[in-house]
Amino acid sequence: MAPSVNDASPPSTINDAVTENNLQPFFVLQKGSVRKTERKLSGTGKTRRRIDLSPELPKNSENLEDEMEEEKMSMRMEAFEFVWSKIESTIKDVLREINTSVFSEIQSWVHQSFDMIRSLGTPDFPQATRSFPIITDANSKKLFTGLVLTKNMEFVDDLLTFEELGKHLKAQGCHVANLSSLDFTAKNGIGGCLRSLLRQFLMSTLDAADISILASWYGEQNYNNPVVVIVDDIERCCGSVLSDFILMLSEWVVKIPVILIMGVATTLDAPRNILPSNALQRLCPFDFTLGIPAERMDAVVEAVLVKPCSGFSIGHKVAVFMRNYFVSQDGTLTSFIRALKIACTQHFYMEPLSFILRDLVLEEDNWEFEIEQYGLSPEVTLKHAFNLPSYQRVKMTKVTSESLAHALSELKRLQNQWRAVVLCLYETGKGEKVRLLDLFCEANDLESYNRREFDACTKLEKDSVSSPSSRQGPGLIKGGVICEAVRLVRDLSTRQLGKLLKIWENLTVGIMEINGKVKELQSLLKAEDGKSSKKDLIVTPKRHASRIQLNIEDSKSLGDKAAKLLECMVRDYMQPIECIPFHEIFCFKNVDKLRSALIGDPRRRIQVDLLEFQKLLHCNCCIRGSNALLPSMHDTSIMYNLAQEHGDLINLHDWYQSFKSVVLCPSSSKMKSRPSPLPKKRKDINESENRSEASIQARFCRAVTELQITGLLRMPTKRRPDFAQRVAFGL
Amino acid sequence: MDFNEVDEEEFGFSRNYFLAKELGSSGKKSAHKLSDINVVDEQELRAAAANIEPKHQKDITALIKSYKCLYPKWIFELRCGFGLLMYGFGSKKALLEDFASTALTEYSVVVINGYLQSVNIKQVVIGLAEILWEQLKSKRRNSSGNLPKVQQPFSSLSMDDLLAFLDGSVMECDSFICIVIHNIDGPGLRDSETQQYLAQLASCSNVRVVASIDHVNAALLWDKKMVHAQFNWYWYHVPTFAPYKVEGLFFPMILAHGSSNQSAKTAAIVLQSLTPNAQSVFRILAEYQLSHPDDEGMAIDNLYSVSRERFLVSSQVTLNAHLTEFKDHELVKTRRNSDGQDCLYIPLATEALEKLLTEIG
């Protein structure tokens, strides 16, 4: 509470606030010298999770318990680090993979450009040592510029791309410097970006930023390798500084063969909009295009959430929230990954058994579950595991370690099936813009799974009396992604179907039942193909027409069969993780927690705090739910409630008067600010009235200040000295 | 779908805005003046402000205490690489410092008071670098690790080098310096350059940030890069309803007009940015005003001759340049004296003026 560690008394008056530390711009609160073992003595406020605390434990074992708790926490922390680093590296690999072709394209262009510059000649020794540029002809002023179209307004997603591009080119022997728009500010001018260049190439900071230093440095590098300067977002750069930079580099291009790579978020017009013509003339542009964000998103979802990666998974609601956040709010892959990390963090913090995931990452194939290896008491662990709601629903076997291990491997098997079906669906819809993220959400939907089950049952009862007009599969959401995929299969040509079946076959390798069916279909297809090719041999014009007819019909029925198969796969094998026992160990489902951690909503929440403060403070004096303002309420809360009755301008006088009348409300005879409840002499009354007037005014002032701090109120201006301005209207 | 909800929300928002506007303009604007309030003497007001009886103290204490159970979670998240961002009504200063001093005992903690009028971010970074350096040194004494070479003292390094030092030097994992920033949206930190530096600081591998915001629009300070890639915020709604004691210290009291402290302070800031000669000219004017409290002000000719004698100005033109500067910042005003002569005066009370002179002296 107190500003210093030793001082334990809480501040009570305003003078306490004015301590030295509070008025220092910054101060060192403590130095981290206390080691972990000593820390336990001062450890306070530990939370205990349900399973760790058995109430029978005697009190003196509390320390021991704390220690155990800490150990478990560090175990989960370790597991988190393991799992997250696995996820993170997977994501990085995926993104790198997506960019490989563009990167190699850029790389070969860089080397071509470099050769072109070199063909202008290498400066000889006296030329090279002079500190001014060499200009032979107009050509020698051309600056090769690669414009990388990011196809994404959100430059934050491409920070990593350009970093990776830099690494890629460095690995190919180029000298690379990455600049950002922060280096091109009007304030720092050309010196800013030059200094940054020198920092990155020479690894040192020089006060005098001069390009001739760079030239002499390059001379020492023997003119062998191209110099690449990457600017990640030119739209955010200061145009004049960027054009100065380009003009300068182009003058020096013979001595320092710089090749410029610029990220463009909008269109190819961007340089024309930013740069003046003299700078534009110096550029010799080439353009490259990166993949669109949705593609990257699909690749990431596939690698991290669908394919086996870390074992960590998210529930349906969380997935839907993350998708909506991506689609309609933030739009960046970065934030999606961040949301995933928050989910992961919360999962490991909340779920005591989450440490199991670590071993899942370590030994993916021959993974066996043994509680003892974690140094935990089996009873506690099992008790927790078998108390999980997903187990309580099914209540199958005895509570033993073996049954748990069995259940976990069953979970793994079901997940493999689910994965295979999802990937089959994804492959089917890939050409038709079926997004994996949408598919993932739908495939994880417990409700529609249950509906599918239910429909299947009722269908059996009705014994296939279903009308032929309903081509829609059982329980599939109309307009949903799965339904779309099934529809697509029906309309495929024989050749396309053959290709697709081949993919399905590969995807379902581990699952005998589906794999067999797919193979069956394939052989049917082959027979069909054989038939038609045989017919091809004895082709006559008349029969030709009928053959086409036949072929269409055949493939239609084949397509139908494939669609049926797909429907069966969806119904029988695509079991969402949330209906499998013990999924809580792997699956994060608390969408509210994720939302509040990811998206703070200060604008609304601070207002709600003020308007409904009783709900937070749980006090007895201010009656809940009643609209009347009571004098016992928080001053700032009263003021803000009163402010709601005003327009955009608040007359300070009126505001004060209404505040005063609320505070002095008759029901508050025991008003706190009045020191003596029963003043006897008239003089006393006057004095105390005066004092309470001062006190009310002071409270008014403080409330106004507090509203000003929260930004909900703007102070009176000179033009309107008697009015304050409201800032927020409605929540 | 959500879109409709969002639309509805936005519609509601704009409707509220126009309703409020209408209420403000159509209904008769209240003609009451602030001066109609019988404002007590300023000193009395300040005394009263210092002794406001707290309300709901017990409930507030209980509320703040209830956040204690979140401490282990906060540490967990810090260790996972997130920055914690606390919001909600009420001062969070005590809460954050309590968290740091009871739960983060293993780590070094530096506190930045963003509610102050000005914070020199470079000084902060130098301080952080020194702490890290000390930690690395003590680590090396224990085990044989390699120290990164730092030739110069930190105070002479550039910001980039300092940040690179904080980012690059490898400590054993799970060892970081925690920066507690009170009011990261406060006046001392609000400019975009400082926020950029803070963001870079937050993204350093050896640094974690725990910050608080109070302003409803604080989130507008950051772009997506800062939020997602650098600060990596983990939001927490932790209203405390504790009074903003220190945070409010620098706001003028709305009922205390001509607050001498405040205007003298702003005047001092303006003056300090001017040349020494200009300051001296101002000093002449101020001293004249103090020694002739009953005069309307100092005549321009008079000021010119005195300034010229002291070699502060060489011509009327230079003096006028200074005067324009003063007038722009409302440090000096003109009025006519009884002789019809234009006089210059400083619109500050005597005590405020004295205080100002000592401050710039």
TrEMBL record, chain A:
Domain Origin recognition complex subunit 3 N-terminal: 62-355
Residues in Origin recognition complex subunit 3 winged helix C-terminal domain copies: 603-729
Chain residue ranges for the region called Disordered: 34-66, 667-691
GO molecular function: DNA replication origin binding
One GO CC term, this protein: nuclear origin of replication recognition complex
GO BP annotations listed: DNA replication initiation; lateral root development; response to sucrose
Source organism, top-level taxon: Eukaryota
Keywords, alphabetical: DNA replication, DNA-binding, Nucleus
Compartment list: Nucleus
Keyword Nucleus in record: yes
Protein family (similarity comment): Belongs to the ORC3 family.
PANTHER family, per the entry: ORIGIN RECOGNITION COMPLEX SUBUNIT 3
Stated name of the protein: Origin recognition complex subunit 3, putative isoform 1
Species this chain originates from: Theobroma cacao (Cacao)
TrEMBL record, chain B:
Keywords tagged on the record: DNA replication, Nucleus
Similarity comment text for this entry: Belongs to the ORC2 family.
Function as written in the Swiss-Prot or TrEMBL entry: Component of the origin recognition complex (ORC) that binds origins of replication. DNA-binding is ATP-dependent. ORC is required to assemble the pre-replication complex necessary to initiate DNA replication.
Source species: Theobroma cacao
Start and end residues of each Origin recognition complex subunit 2 RecA-like domain: 60-238
Domain Origin recognition complex subunit 2 winged-helix: 292-351
Protein name per Swiss-Prot or TrEMBL: Origin recognition complex subunit 2
Recorded GO CC terms: nuclear origin of replication recognition complex
